Each structure stands twice: as structure tokens, then as C-alpha cells.
């Protein structure tokens, strides 16, 4: 293997696959990046127990200034290769595999000889049947991940809840996540005719996936196998394992009738919750209280040792009964951040029943649920 | 105490004194900031065992939009006050001390009541005799700190070496620091007639001091007492304790005659050292080797398990004997960063004797010393 390439282009590819590379793995070769130089361009692969990422840089990419002298392959320590590429003196680097799986990395007068490993020893990635593929825009997938991923459980006591549940049926894709204290569910219509599926993808994989996309305007192809899912863009294959087990039936959790409804402008409510949580975070019980009457909504935060805060909130509309309800402000903050800049309606049943948050405009099928805290 | 003030102006003052406030102190009141509102403006004070900072915001400062309704004082949790100020809904905040050392903090519709402490219980700052004052520009003091502070010892085994030694005598200010492996010494001429001094200021205090200055063009007044030093600018009093004990005589450590001299452009040498240290950092002995002959200078880094690097260096001049010398590249990096963008001359005696680095242009009195590593 021998090539010359612009070092910043190679570094960028390396950073993409490094999302899948951990220095803490128990399989030593997985701390490395697999580099394969083929006639059509350069493939890099990084992998851990949960995800694998393969990136491809075509020789047609003029910015990368790639010249291929001899195809071949090697595995190099990923972190160390990155440090070398960052510090090289010139724009262009020449890399050549020598005997004994060593590689020469030359740029200007700097001449590195680095020990690598035989690429034959690198584990094979799963082969995924690419017949049943669904295609959606990257920006839409990223949005769904941001709208649901934060609500997955962080605890391994119920592993299935650490993932996001995706169900494709009746031309609709449903994504839902819950940690049993709050829930977030998003549904989008799907026009393609593809086979239905019902899978649970680890929340951490989805987080890395959404960070790995470079072009929001691209399409991403989703292929599903027994225990793997593949997300495929023009220059990246992103594999994740699936979680095994039955995801709880969340549909019956979302109530249909309510007694009190208040409409807010999301970002304004978020700022007020952030202020009130300054106090609640200092106390033992991280709760704030919302007091709704026909002509006012007042938010209270209290921590006896530190102080208290009280704020009369700006709202758009109130309908229904008066209500006093307490909840964990951090769940509310996460929920409001997921909505972003829009008007939302919060619907309550009683101080002890979960309440929902939805966009006021009915054109988006997105609902969140938060369980209140009983205070007496 | 009652005032209105622009919250970002108050936050900026708070951030200055917060450099002296630790949440880990054993004296609870020192986690607070002392706030004193006087007829002329607002004083904030933060303090820990090593440094105390007092900032002053004059009511004449139009940007701060300060209105003083009633003078007074209080001590508030510094971190918590900062969080509140950052999150308030409006530009202007009204603060009023209530009964029982509580304070009301109001901005827009948000109304905080926060528990404080009586300012009478806050420790008094040392009173410093301001007769014997030296004055130098802030940018010059900052430069001296950057040129010497990095060389102090990080180990408490010889506490005196954790400080920078400042000596004023014969119209010259000498600053020197050493951790016994390397040394950095800077001398500047002083024109004022002030009493000579010989003090050791903790390196950490100097680091905080250089970060606390906001205006490089100002003058700073330096006053010295038995065990304290005060740095005074228009809006800030910065106190530091002095280190007790005798600083070793470093003057005799700097050699006067040499056998090999090489001139480099500092930043180019620094880049090459950074590359070579990528390899040495992976190995057990963090050393690189420089091989100087009449017509080449070659730098080697080696870590048998990982690989090796070799780079022929660009230099300006070589005079004297051939030499092979090994050293810790991290000391060299620190030294070269302190010189910045200039040509420097490195002067060697032998592979086992300390070598010096100096600016090639003789107009700056700045010398650094590094002890080599014996390799056989």
C-alpha cells in the first residue's frame, strides 16, 4: 500500500470512524483503525462492541489530492495516527506499508516509522441484506433522534429502556423512548413501500450516528437484519447492534382526555424553568411547583437552606380547572429543548397523573409525557 | 443595601473575584462573595488561603447603569449568585437586602429571595503599607509571569520552588523560577527609585493574577509587606501571600562558556519537538535525541513498541563541536513557547551538562536552562 494524500482530508475521515473506536476495549486490535486502499479510493473502519463505522474517500475527490501508487491494507493505532496527522509539517503526507506491518509516514523532512498490524486480523463487519431498505433524509433522521433519544433510560437495570423503539407499520414510522419517568414519541409518515419492522436501537448508538453525519441534505438508507441495523450514506456505513427483548407497550400510557390546558411559547417557559431549577437543584428533592388559575400561572422553586424563587409566567391561553402540580424541572427542560422554538400546549388531568406536552399547531405528531411528583 | 445594575456588569465583577473563591474551603464564609455598596460604587471581595481579590465598580461607569438607593453590605454564595445572574430574564437587576441577611433579587417577573450572611463576619483583608510602591505596565508584568511561571516546581517537597523569585536591586528586576530540572530567568530594567526587595510569590497566585487583568495598557502598582504582596490596578486589588524560606542561589547555575552553539527560528524548532515527543510520550523514558554535526541537525524520537521518527531540522547557524544530546522534550516545548516568535540560540557544553537557550538578538535579558538526560 502506498499513497499520497492531503493530511487534513485523511484526518477528517479518521475522526469519523474514531467515534466507534474506544481505547478501553478488551480486544487490542479494536483500538486501531483499519485502512484499506483500493483502486477506487480509501476505506477506513473503526469498531467497538456496539457500533462499527466505515468511511470511504473516493479518489475522485479533488480536495483530498489523493494519488494511489499501490493498493493494500494495514491496521494502525487510531489515536496515535490522529496525533501524527495533526502535527505533520506539510499539507501532503506520503504513507507506505513496509515489511513486518510497519508503515512509513513522511511529510516534509519529518519521517515516521510506525508499527501496525495485519489487516487480515481485523474482525469482519456483519454482512447486511440490502434488499429491504428504507430511505429518509439525514436531517429528518437527526431530528427524530434529537426528539426522542434524550428520554432513554441511563440505567442498565432494564436494558431495553436504554434504546429507542422504532416501529414501521401502516406507512408510518413511530419512534418512542421512555425511562419510566418521562416519555417522548414522534411519528412521521413514510411514503415508500417497505417491509414493516419493530426494533430497538441503543440510545448511545443513535447519539453517535447523529454526530457522524456531515451532510444534512443527503439521504440515509436504513437496512435491518436479525440483530443489526445499517445506516448508509454516500461516504459512510454506520452499523449498530439492536437491543434484544420486548419493549413495553407505551401506547396505552398516553392519556386522551384532560382537565386543564395551558399554551406557552416554549423558549420563554424553558428560561423560567431554568431559573426555578437553580433553587430546586440545591435542595434534596429536585422539584418545582406550577400553580395554574384562570388568570395566572406561577412557577415556584424552593430550597429552605438557600432561598426561593417565584415567577409569574407569560402564557398564551389557559382553559379548564385550577391546578397545583409539582415535577422534576430537568424532565421539563429536556422536553422543552426538544420542541425548540414553537408554541406548545401542556395538558393536565390532576396533580398525580402524568401530563402531556404537544406542539400547539397540529401538523406535527410529537407528544411528550412527564410524571409529576406527589408532594403530600 | 439597595441598587439596580446591569446584570452583565455585575457578573463580570463577580467573575474577577471568583478566581479567589474556592468551593472546597474549610472556612464556609469564604465560599461567598462579600458585596459592599458604598456611595462611590460597588466593592466585591473573594478570598482563599493564598490570594484575595477585591474589585471596584464605580457608579460613574455608564455601561453598568448603576443606581444606588441605599448603601450596605452582605455575603452571598458566589457560585449560586453567578448562576442566578446568568439566567435572569431582563438586562437590569434590582437587589435589596431584607431582614435576617436575606436578599431579594428581582429582574422582570422573576423574584428570588436568597439567604446570605452578615458581611461583618467576613475576614478582613491585610492592611498593606502603600509607601514603597513599584509601578510597571500590566503587559510587562504579564509577560514576565508567562516567561518564568511555567518553570516553577509542581511538587510540595520543596515548597520554596513552587514560587517565582523576584529580586529588585541596582535598578533591575530579576525574576527566576526553577523546578531543579530546568530554569527560566528574566531581567528588566526599572527606572523608578524604590526600595530593593527579595520575595518569592507562589506560581499559582501569579497565574491567577495574569488571568485577572482586563486592561493590558494599564499600570499596576506593586506593594510589599512582611508576608503579603498587593498588585493594584484602577479597578482591582489583588493580594497574594509570599512563600517563606530561602530561595536557592540560581545565579551560579548559569554557565558562561560553551562548546557548541546552534541558532533556530523558535516556532519551527517547537513544531519538530512536538512531532518527536509524540513518540517519546509513548515510551517509558520521555526523551528525544538531538544530533548536531557541522552541516546538519537531526532530531530523533523512539519508542520501540510504537515506532520512531527522524527529522532533519532547519537551522540558521551552527558553530563549535559535534554533539549528541538527549533531553525531555516537554521542558524544551515549554521553553520555546515562552520565547514565542523569535530566533533563539541554544548553547551546549557537553551531553551531560545543562544547556542554555537565549534570544539571538541581545536586547532582551532572558535565559533558560535545561538539564539533559544521560542515556548511557
Summarize the structure.
The structure is a homodimer of 376-residue chains. Chain A has 376 residues and is α+β, with helices and mostly antiparallel strands.
Describe the structure.
The structure is a homodimer of 376-residue chains. The first copy, chain A, has 3 domains: 2-121, DNA Polymerase III, subunit A, domain 2 (DNA Polymerase III, Chain A, domain 2), CATH 3.10.150.10; 133-241, DNA Polymerase III, Chain A, domain 2, CATH 3.10.150; 260-370, Box (Proliferating Cell Nuclear Antigen). Helix content of chain A is 18%, strand content 42%. Chain A has helices at 7-18, 78-87, 138-148, 203-212, 266-280, 329-339, and strands at 2-6, 32-38, 41-47, 51-58, 67-70, 72-77, 92-97, 102-107, 110-115, 133-137, 163-169, 172-178, 182-189, 197-202, 219-224, 228-232, 236-241, 260-265, 288-293, 296-303, 307-312, 317-320, 323-327, 343-348, 355-359, 365-370. Chain A has a 9-stranded antiparallel β-sheet with strand order 14-11-12-13-26-25-24-18-22. Chain A has an 8-stranded antiparallel β-sheet with strand order 6-2-3-4-17-16-15-10. The radius of gyration of chain A is 25 Å and the shape is elongated. The A-B interface holds A 77, 80, 83-84, 87-89, 102, 109-115, 271-272, 274-275, 278-279, 282, 305-314 and B 77, 80, 83-84, 87-89, 102, 109-115, 271-272, 274-275, 278-279, 282, 305-314.
